[in-house]
Design brief:
The chain has one helix and nine strands. It has 123 residues and is mainly β. The protein has one domain: Cyclophilin (Beta Barrel). It has a nine-stranded antiparallel sheet with strand order 3-9-1-2-8-6-7-5-4, covered by helices on one side. β4 and β5 form a beta hairpin. The chain is globular.
């Protein structure tokens, strides 16, 4: 059963849900979490204290998807294309574990500027 979380970046708060994967369960165990983040095209990513193996890794994702990137132990929020995208696809740097999705319009993250901190918490 999906678990509700909230993502906050500056003044933007997004409702999201984590799926019932083993990776998502590990992430739930470390919440709440506040840390700095990086962007790569229209992707926010940040290291989290989770060491999960590949689990149903996906080479492309959909708008609003949340993923876990095993090589960087990173939580990823996809709100548009990345530098690796071809055509209309959204492509992570390498395959990610699907862990959930934003329940709304994640493209509002394109308007974030000057903010370098993100928070995740269970609802």
């Amino acid at each position: 059963m999906p678990e509700a979380i909230q993502i906050t970046v500056g003044e933007i708060t997004l409702d999201a849900e984590l799926n019932d994967s083993n990776t998502a369960a590990q992430i739930l165990d470390v919440l709440p979490l506040t840390c700095s983040f990086n962007t790569w095209g229209d992707e926010i990513y940040f290291a989290i204290p989770v060491d999960a193996d590949p689990e149903d890794p996906q080479e492309t994702v959909a708008l609003n998807d949340l993923g876990y990137w095993p090589p960087g132990q990173a939580f990823c929020i996809f709100y548009g294309q990345t530098p690796a995208s071809v055509g209309d696809e959204i492509r992570p740097a390498s395959p990610v574990n699907p862990i959930g999705r934003v329940l709304g319009d994640a493209t509002v993250l394109k308007d974030v500027s000057g903010v370098r901190e993100i928070s995740l918490e269970k609802v």
